[in-house]
């Protein structure tokens, strides 16, 4: 019961408006139900004495430690603060020391991770006295993993802990990092260095004590035991890995849902997500709480794409909300949602039934651009030494968080006259699940452009570069769209062009690397068949010449271009058609355009001078699966997808771009494509636009922002290979 002194204290607390009821109840879930309607009474009678926080910024223990006069007087810390301390700017919480201040640098990690087991465990051990607890938990879990441990303080205690870990777990990798971002920055430091790249899943742990919670130790134990259950971790881990639509595994009760959990983190979370072209709504939120969970590689790739470093994180001051680390915790939920991935709790994982398996493609192709070497024509039209890289590197961002310029990573600014580059590209593509490159072939009535890469390839029989050709039969124009502007190289279709083109292709058809996806016929694609004066006659002429010259039948395809040509083509003229997003999916009348008559609806501001078109990548992904859309395509169409689209490098403020593209959404598109479109796709194939269209940001190659994120997404999204025999 409250005595008169308690009642005066209660009156003071309520009058101050400094007691945060929601925070207090959320931070102390074990408060008895009798007190949940009157949490101030709980605080007065027992909470303050137990050291519980009445709001995120006041620690009773820290207040007494830093204000000796209050401690000696025997006054209640929060009562003193309300009466006098807040007016005297007294210290109200712990300010943990940091190893390095803002502006300092952290040495990059060298070499690779341990990479001996298929999964990894990462522990951030701020409280070094908890090592024994984690060691015992990991041993009892009984599964194989590589162990990484990060510590935060340099000194005798750190060295003693390092020695203990080395004795208990000799294979562990132990690092000392600054106390910034608590457990989040150390984890990202390992991730950004590539040490966690090759694991099927990563378990993230840290030594929580949560002094602002009444049940801090109990909570930590619940979190760790929940995702490392004794005797069944290995079984549940395999179930987690097998669930394609699951991204995170947390302990029971740690999947928080509801907008009330935003706290003071919404705006910071929005800023974080904008780096990945994602959004957050104030009305909805679900996320993995507690920062202890299993993560799939799709989530890790997105975290790496944030490119967060030491200086991005707040200086540690004992904050309980509002830091970058708190915002990132909530952003994980938005990342999962963007990828169509679930956050599963342990009991849900135990009860999870295997989902029906998705079909996997029989054959995967990607459009390939050879425009990465200088030619005399481009020198004359655009300036000496011009290549695709010239436009790519000078691209400028058109709005906040516009990821331009988009720059290459692993392969650098390559020159395709060096066939070694093509060997490296093919190795990357093969590892990600691509069977062949569909290489653009620039032929203008016998004149060739950009032919050096593929012609030099024919001279290098040892380079394993599987390819087939696509005749890019559009005129080259000053504005890059093939539709308007000054003509630089005209596609005139002179009499006899079809036979001349067909004959010129024979040396490529005869190369052993030239693809015959059906096992017998070389494949050839025409980009814009409706531009040919008489498409049926041209195709018949080509086929007749190939038969006469001993090639036999050719598997002939055409691209479904977004603009109708002057000469309509019968669907059955070609063996197959190729869907090529965004062509044909996005139109000026679509309600998911961000610009146009409806005004700007972008999640970020767009300046008035921008006159291009911005559309929603995620809506395009969804529309590609719509039966109404797919039903309009020819029956023998290869289903297509795209990693991204943004031609700012070519068109500047008049660019067309898909906002919202990132690796996890691309992976989701692939999974859904396998479910909804692949069963009806020609020969069970998938076409990707594109491998290396850097000036249109339709790219799978490693990039400065996402590293190999798109290649990883492709490998996972395609599923297991199907035997064509």
TrEMBL record:
Q: Which Pfam families match?
A: Glyco_tran_WbsX (PF14307), RgpF (PF05045)
**Keywords from the named record:** Plasmid, Transferase
Highest rank taxon of the organism: Bacteria
* InterPro entries listed in its UniProt record: RgpF (IPR007739), WbsX (IPR032719)
Q: Does the keyword ATP-binding apply?
A: no
Q: What Gene3D superfamilies does its record include?
A: Glycosidases
Molecular function via GO: transferase activity
Matching PANTHER family, A to Z?
Answer: GLYCOSYLTRANSFERASE, RHAMNAN SYNTHESIS F
Name of the protein described by the UniProt record:
Glycosyl transferase family 1
- Species in which this protein is naturally found: Tritonibacter mobilis F1926
């Amino acid at each position: 019961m409250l005595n008169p002194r308690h009642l005066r204290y209660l009156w003071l607390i309520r009058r101050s408006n400094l007691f945060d009821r929601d925070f207090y109840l959320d931070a102390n879930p074990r408060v008895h139900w009798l007190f949940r309607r009157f949490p101030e009474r709980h605080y007065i009678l027992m909470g303050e004495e137990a050291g519980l926080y009445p709001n995120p910024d006041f620690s009773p223990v820290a207040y007494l430690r830093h204000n000796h006069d209050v401690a000696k007087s025997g006054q209640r810390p929060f009562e003193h603060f309300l009466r006098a301390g807040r007016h005297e700017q007294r210290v109200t919480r712990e300010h943990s020391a940091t190893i390095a201040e803002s502006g300092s640098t952290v040495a990059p990690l060298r070499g690779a991770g341990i990479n001996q087991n298929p999964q990894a465990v990462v522990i951030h051990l701020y409280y070094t006295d908890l090592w024994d607890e984690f060691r015992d938990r990991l041993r009892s879990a009984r599964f194989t993993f590589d162990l990484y441990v990060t510590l935060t303080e340099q000194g005798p205690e750190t060295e003693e802990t390092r020695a203990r870990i080395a004795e208990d777990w000799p294979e562990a990798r132990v690092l000392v990092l600054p106390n910034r971002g608590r457990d989040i920055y150390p984890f990202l430091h390992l991730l950004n260095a590539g040490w966690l790249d090759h694991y099927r899943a990563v378990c993230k742990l840290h030594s929580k004590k949560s002094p602002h919670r009444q049940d801090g130790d109990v909570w930590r134990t619940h979190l760790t035991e929940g995702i490392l259950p004794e005797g069944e971790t290995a079984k549940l881990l395999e179930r987690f890995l097998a669930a394609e639509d699951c991204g995170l595994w947390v302990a029971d009760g740690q999947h928080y849902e509801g907008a009330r959990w935003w706290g003071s983190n919404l705006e910071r979370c929005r800023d974080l997500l904008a780096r990945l072209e994602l959004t957050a709504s104030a009305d909805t939120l679900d996320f993995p709480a507690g920062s202890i969970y299993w993560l799939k590689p799709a989530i890790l790739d997105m975290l790496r794409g944030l490119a967060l470093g030491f200086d991005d994180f707040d200086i540690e001051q004992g904050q309980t909300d509002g830091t970058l680390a708190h915002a990132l915790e909530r952003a994980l939920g938005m990342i999962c949602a963007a990828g169509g991935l679930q956050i599963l709790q342990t009991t849900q994982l135990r009860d999870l039934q295997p989902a029906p398996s998705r079909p996997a493609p029989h054959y995967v192709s990607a459009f390939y651009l050879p425009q990465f070497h200088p030619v005399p024509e481009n020198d004359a039209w655009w300036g000496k030494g011009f290549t695709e890289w010239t436009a790519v590197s000078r691209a400028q961002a058109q709005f906040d968080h516009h990821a331009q310029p988009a720059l290459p990573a692993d392969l650098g600014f390559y020159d395709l006259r060096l066939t070694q580059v093509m060997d490296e590209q093919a190795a990357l593509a093969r590892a990600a699940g691509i069977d062949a490159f569909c290489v653009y072939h620039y032929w203008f009535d016998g004149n060739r452009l950009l032919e050096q890469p593929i012609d030099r390839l024919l001279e290098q029989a040892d380079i394993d570069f599987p390819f087939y050709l696509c005749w890019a039969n559009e005129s080259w124009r000053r504005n890059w769209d093939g539709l308007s502007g000054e003509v630089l190289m005209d596609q005139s279709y002179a009499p006899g062009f079809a036979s001349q083109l067909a004959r010129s292709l024979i040396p490529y058809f005869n190369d052993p690397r030239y693809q015959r996806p059906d096992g017998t016929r070389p494949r050839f694609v025409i980009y814009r068949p409706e531009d040919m004066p008489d498409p049926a006659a041209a195709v018949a002429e080509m086929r007749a010449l190939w038969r006469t010259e001993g090639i036999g039948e050719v598997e002939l395809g055409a691209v479904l271009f977004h603009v109708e040509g002057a000469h309509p083509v019968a669907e059955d003229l070609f063996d197959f058609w190729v869907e090529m997003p965004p062509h044909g999916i996005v139109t000026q009348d679509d309600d998911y355009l961000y610009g146009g008559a409806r005004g700007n609806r972008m999640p970020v501001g767009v300046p008035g001078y921008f006159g291009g078109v911005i559309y929603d990548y995620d809506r395009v992904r969804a529309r590609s699966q719509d039966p109404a859309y797919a039903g309009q395509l020819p029956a023998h169409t290869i289903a297509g997808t795209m990693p991204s689209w943004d031609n700012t490098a070519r068109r500047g403020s008049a660019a067309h771009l898909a906002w919202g593209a990132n690796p996890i959404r691309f992976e989701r598109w692939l999974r859904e494509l396998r479910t909804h479109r692949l069963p009806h796709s020609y020969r069970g194939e998938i076409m990707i636009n594109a491998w290396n269209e850097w000036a249109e940001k339709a790219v799978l190659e490693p990039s400065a922002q996402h590293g190999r994120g798109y290649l990883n997404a492709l490998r996972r999204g395609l599923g297991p290979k199907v035997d064509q025999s």
